[in-house]
Amino acid sequence: MDPPLTEKDKSNTSIKSTKDGSSSKPTSKAGSRAGSAKSSKKGAGDEKKENIPPPSNDMKDNPAADMRNMRRIIAEDPDWSLMTVPLLWEICIQFIVNNFENNSDILKDLLSKHKLKVLERISTDLPLKVTANLIQDEGYWKRCCKARWQICDVSKYGGSWKRMYFERNLQHIIEHFVPENSDATELNETLPLSANYIKTLDIKQLLPPVKEAPKGLDAIDDMSDTGSDAGDGPETDHFDFAQVLPKLPNLEEFRLTYGVKDCGMNFEWNLFQFTQRDCLLLAKTVATCKNLRTFQLHRSKLDDDKVRVLISHLLDHPSLTELDLSHNKIDDRGARAVGKLLNGHSQLVSLNLCDNQIRSAGAQAIAHALTKNTTLHSLNIRLNRLGDEGGQPICRALLKNTTLNELNLGSNDLTEPTAALMAQVVIQNSTLKEVDLSCNRLGPDGGKQLQEGMEENSTITKMDLRLTECGQESEYCINQILNRNQETEREMLLNQKNAKR
After folding, report:
1. Largest Cα–Cα distance of the chain, in whole Å?
2. Which of 28, 62, 267, 297 is the most buried (most CB within 10 A)?
3. In which residue ranges is the amino acid composition biased (Low complexity) (predicted)?
4. Which residues share a beta bridge with 375?
5. Number of H helices, E strands in the chain
6. What number of CA atoms fall less than 13 Å from residue 306's CA on the CB side?
7. How do the residues of the chain divide into helix, strand and coil, expressed in percent and rounded to 5?
């Protein structure tokens, strides 16, 4: 049995209980604060969970992109990450690109989106035998053109990058082909692959065969002093187009120059020779191109004998409509041959004889052909030597001709008598729309006569009278009439357009 408590023990007991009570109260407060803090932390966590965005499609395709499913890995390589692991389809496409030359047929079996990826990555240096008939994508051929040439004007090729590549590629092969020296393997392999895509062939140079250098310094000096400078060196034949043109069924335009570009210090006159054999082979080959519409042979020293050979093979060409023989050496005999071509034996619409040596006799032959021709719309005889004896017959022919729309007689030593006849032409002829008489000494009298004739004309919209000494007053009045005719033509075209609607 416990002994009874004394007063001292009672006081100690009350003090102890008081202390316990006071100490318990702060404990309960701390506990409540801790509980509230814990609950607040829990609420913030819930809010954070609610703000987590849903997994995207990329995360579904690639679980490595979803960081919620991945553990933190500290690798020895600090750049290592599962995020850089490519997708399987990307690995497959890269494999196809790397082995495309050996397995190109797989392109046909790919999906459209994967096919585009492959075409964007394959090399532009792949051989044509792999890409020519397989790839039709314009984007790929655009990359090929841009990688090979600095200037690429696709508008000259009907907006087709593939056509541009094949035409310029074949042009490069022919322009750098050296007869009797170059290997024809590349040409023979390229032709069947390019045939269906080539419509225009523009050859700006032809290389002659390489001659063996003469032995000894004396021989070199003799050649330099005689043959090369005088232009009477041995003639050498050039590239034979018979091995190319017949294999191009869609060829419509053929432009050609016999010469060498950028020859520099290696200049020799025989580099610019157009031989008789060249002419004969070319004429026969062009005659076989039944779909050819445009033929241009300029800056090639084409003389009377050669043009007669050429014209003889073009007389009955079924589709040729444009013939350009400018900047050559055609004289009166050659002009007679051209007149024979115009005299009902062709379908020519445009003829260019600019910068030749045609005189009055040749002009008379052309004028006679114009009286019978019913197809020609454009005639350019600029920079010849017609004189009034050649200019007047052409003007008389225009009094009968009813098809010619454009006529260029600039720089032909024409004077006032030709201007007087031209004044009659502009009164009676109702088909002419453009006339060029520039660089002729028509004089003030000729200008006044042209002005009087133009006052009765309503169809000519362009007339070039620069450097003709016609007088400012006559030129001003003629220009006013031309403006009136242009406005009339514009209104007529608008009315026709509205009528079609």
Report:
1. 166
2. 297
3. 28-38
4. none
5. 18, 9
6. 20
7. 55, 5, 40
Tokens 């062709």 belong to 346
Cβ–Cβ under 8 Å, residues 311 and 341: yes
Q: How many residues does the chain have?
A: 501
pTM for the complete prediction?
Answer: 0.78
Assigned token pair, 143: 């990359």
pLDDT score of 67: 59
β-bridge mates for residue 352, sequence order: 324, 380
| φ and ψ at residue 436, rounded to 5 degrees | -115, 115
- Cβ atoms within 10 Å of 119's Cβ, excluding its own: 19
What is the tens place of the pLDDT at every residue in 148-198? 999 999 999 999 999 999 999 999 999 999 988 888 999 999 999 999 999
- Which token pair is 11? 């006081």
| CA dihedral (391, 324, 402, 346) positive or negative | positive
Helix (H) or strand (E) holding 264: none
Short-list 248, 235, 237, CA closest to 171:
248
- Dihedral angle over CA of 154, 158, 160, 161, nearest 10: -30
Sequence-ordered strand ranges (E) for 322-470 = 322-324, 350-352, 378-380, 406-408, 434-436, 462-464
Tokens found for residue 236: 């050498």
DSSP annotation of 214: P
Q: Distance of CA 108 to CAs 111, 125, 150, 472, Å?
A: 8, 20, 32, 70
Pull the structure tokens for residue 311. Answer: 């014209």
CB 415 within 8 A of CB 441: yes
CB 65 within 8 A of CB 58: yes
pLDDT in tens, 330-342: 999 999 999 999 9
Tokens 């994967």, residue? 114
In 205-359, which residue ranges form alpha helices assigned H by DSSP?
217-223, 229-230, 276-288, 304-314, 332-342
Answer yes or no: is pLDDT of 38 > 80: no
- Using DSSP bridges, classify how beta strands 322-324 and 434-436 pair: parallel, antiparallel or unpaired: unpaired
Residue 372: name the closest of 400, 338, 404, 408 by CA: 400
Q: How far is CA 228 from CA 232, 235, 301, 329, 354, in A?
A: 7, 11, 16, 20, 28
Nearest to 240 by CA among 277, 215, 199, 291: 277
